[in-house]
Amino acid sequence: MAQNLKKQAKQRNRAARRAAEAAAEQAAAEQAAKERRQQTIIGGIAVAVVVVLIALIAVVFWNSRRDANANANMSVDEAYSKVQAVENKPARADKQGGILLSNKGYGQKVDGVPTVGIYMDFICPGCGSVNQQLDPTLIKLVNAGQLNLELHFLSFMDSYSTDEYSSRAANAALYIADHDDDPDHLLSFVSNLYAKDFQPSEGSGYKSVSDDKLKEQATKAGVSQTVADKAFGRDYQDWLDAMNVYTPKRSELLNTSGTYEGSFTTPTLTINGKRWNLSDVTAANMTLVDGFLESVGLSSDQVGVEGALPSIGADKDPISVMTGE
Description:
Glutaredoxin, 325 residues, elongated, 8% strand, alpha+beta, single chain
């Protein structure tokens, strides 16, 4: 009888183990099924997210292409109307986007002297080169009442940086022009941004420049900390965007020869509204300063001399460095 009891106990134990094993197998199967369902749900969500992202990218790309095509097909008059329709414009910019300054201050011309327009983008290496070579002479001429200066800030080269450097710098320059009454501060700020040890490289060589670094260049130029701190709200971005479309459509600013014939590039300089060809200065084997002085009709020893006025005055075209006419 004792043996029968032991045998029955063993049978019960085996049955219990088999039941436990079956229960464990069932639990494992249920857990695996649950995990598969979860993975299916997660996978479905991931696919849905990817689909949404792709759709959003497609919409953004389509909108950008649509906007680019619309801008490309827009007439110069339509582009001009877009500029004028912007609500928040720089107060000291004229209808074509220029900030006029002279030794009389903002918005006032000295009579009988040339007006030089400079179209620039702050990340443009050519703009930096022109500024470094020519601006010290231009500033002397302005201070002596021998020249009026008209600055055009653009930001169409944002894609050459990772943080929209062109727009941030241009907005700051426009804000300073509107909120600091001393044009020398603006000119110094522009020169600081184009300094060899500050202007960033474009494209793959670009290294991010913070707003704080740009503010330092403003205060170094004499701008108050209060104005500098407020100069980076991008107050004029809509206006800049409109100017970036309008300015390149102005036929009088387009290249007349070379690789970029028929298109707008920076830097572009005008003298009394007439495009001044930098390539002619190179072809004539002249320095930028010498070429400029010849073009306005002034000798190097007259630079900064009050009362020594450029021969072309306020209305004549620049003198050609190629022909002397």
